[in-house]
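Team,

Forwarding the record for the chain on the shared tracking sheet. I've put the sequence and predicted structure together so nobody has to dig through attachments.
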Amino acid sequence: FEKSYFEDINDYVKLENALKESEPEIIFHLAAQPLVRYSYKNPLETFQTNTIGTLNILNIARRVKNLKAIVIITTDKVYENKEWYWGYKELDPLGGYDPYSASKACAEIIVNSMRQSFFSVDEFKKSHNVLIASVRAGNVIGGGDWSEDRLIPDVVKAANDNSSAIIRNPKSTRPWQHVLEPLRGYLMLGERLLLEQKEFATSFNFGPNNEGDLSVEDVLKLTSSFWDKISYQTQVDLNAPHEANLLMLDISKARKMLNWTPILNSSLSIEWTIRWYKEFYEKNNILTINHLEKYLEKLS
């Protein structure tokens, strides 16, 4: 049985009706305003959606029958950025310079507050039956992302238009990973929560191996090797809003506790992503199922 609801997460009444009517056993909360540059133009919307939207989910969850688990998806940008050359761990201080990052850090604080106040692990199976975890994923790539101000969507759209993409920060380093990698992690974590394993009601990082920590420039070189139409030029905007230059994640906790580890290296992740868009633009063919099948083959 499947029913879809297309609503605004900020509409408390409609969200409550949808959750109470569907009575899910598990909630994966991915609804968000996910763009850094957009958040500078629309800070109120960003905080409302990412912070209060998360609170809406958690408050309504207190009265949803049969609910057993919630996985809240935030971002690697929740950490107070110190331009470290090593990965942030789950217990490192939260921060957020821009409205997007800060709104997601606020969401993490809300998760922790609601967990301690209403979904305490110590009170599990006594005063409530729900376990809550939060997950922080690195820069996710993969076919089907059409968002503005994202590196690969920008360059493939430019390639399709026979133009050059404008690159703002070629030296910025991020933890790039294919979308199927963290999704597998979310499902593995959700399974542990449904099995009532209380130690997993905490936060987890999901990111690439160290070789996946690439600069924008490195990523662009790989993209152009998989599609010769890709072209770009650098135009540093001195008046551009602030963005972190160096950001990496420590994924040792997910490795140890979940036995999760990335299986696609950076080159293959980028190749799959570029081939998805190339196939879509040139042949109107969607490779999503093909990539999922190939990914599952690698797991077996």
